[in-house]
Amino acid sequence: MSAIGGVHVKYLLHCPRQLWLYMRGYRPEQRSDAVAYGEAVDDTTYTRRRDIDLGEAKIDWVTTGAVVHETKSSRAPSEQHEAQVRHYCLLLERRGVAVQHGVIHYPLVRRTTTVAWDRQARTLAEDTERQAQAVISQPDAPPRLDRPRCRGCSYIDYCWGDS
């Protein structure tokens, strides 16, 4: 069974095919302007905080009382963002940390979103983790999404390059 981190959750919810390819070493996001932009936002905001490296995942930071914080470069909240934070809460809880909740920071629009951490959130995180494991273990790549949903994806050449 593969260790599941935040990027795996993000890719699963964006496109299961992306997760499958990523787990097999295909990593075009290293050449993506969007990824570079996100890393620049992360590197230049909340600079007093330090990542928490769990091995399979890197949490942007955790404050007193075990509140998980994640910074996003996008301007709008998404289910992917919340799922990542829930996954981080689950990973910390498994290490014996009594997590309170999570907070997603959107510095470009100066907004935050609170992510609950309760029994329902734990169940969602565990289900997402199981879904990711199922995709990873498939012998063949999941089908590609409809092309309009692939706009801006760094994996577009793999999925649509010959079309």
TrEMBL record:
Domain spans labelled DUF83: 6-160
Which InterPro entries does this chain map to? Dna2/Cas4_DUF83 (IPR022765), PDDEXK-like_dom_sf (IPR011604)
Pfam families assigned: Cas_Cas4
Give UniProt keywords alphabetically.
Answer: Exonuclease, Hydrolase, Nuclease
Decide whether keyword Nuclease is in the record. Answer: yes
Tell me yes or no: is Ribosomal protein among this UniProt entry's keywords: no
Q: What is this protein called?
A: CRISPR-associated exonuclease Cas4
- Which terms in the Gene Ontology molecular function aspect does this entry carry? exonuclease activity
What EC number(s) is this enzyme filed under?
A: 3.1.12.1
